[in-house]
Amino acid sequence: MTPAVQQKEEKAERWRAIRLLSDEEAKEQLSGEELESYNNYHASVKTDIERAVEVAKLMLRDLEPERIKPKSKKQVKRDKWAKVSAIAAARAAAK
Fold first, then answer.
1. Whole domain around residue 44: which residue ranges?
2. How confident is the model over 26-52, as pLDDT tens digits?
3. How far is C-alpha 7 from the chain's CA centre?
4. Is residue 28 part of a domain?
5. Does some domain include residue 65?
6. How far apart are CA 41 and CA 19, in angstroms?
7. Per-residue pLDDT tens for 74-92?
8. Strand ranges for the chain from DSSP E
9. What is the C-alpha to C-alpha distance for residues 70 and 67, in angstroms, rounded to an integer?
10. Which residues, at least 6 apart from 14, have a Cβ–Cβ distance to it below 8 Å?
């Protein structure tokens, strides 16, 4: 293994250990660049999770739309009568 590859492997192994730390453990154990990269990583993960939750809520809302009760038979007749009388009034006004 070349030294560059070995160095990358060591960094990757270190990051695997760092990534799983809690926020308190990270503040105690890490400093400098490692702490900054940890904070940036977890901030991006948190925002990604929030976006995913929002998208999931939107998808659920679209999957189950609000159900509208159908009109009753009497309401249908009232609507029809209102429409017919409006047309008759418009024709009478046009004459």
1. 3-70
2. 778 877 888 888 888 888 989 999 999
3. 39
4. yes
5. yes
6. 8
7. 999 999 999 999 999 999 9
8. none
9. 9
10. 34
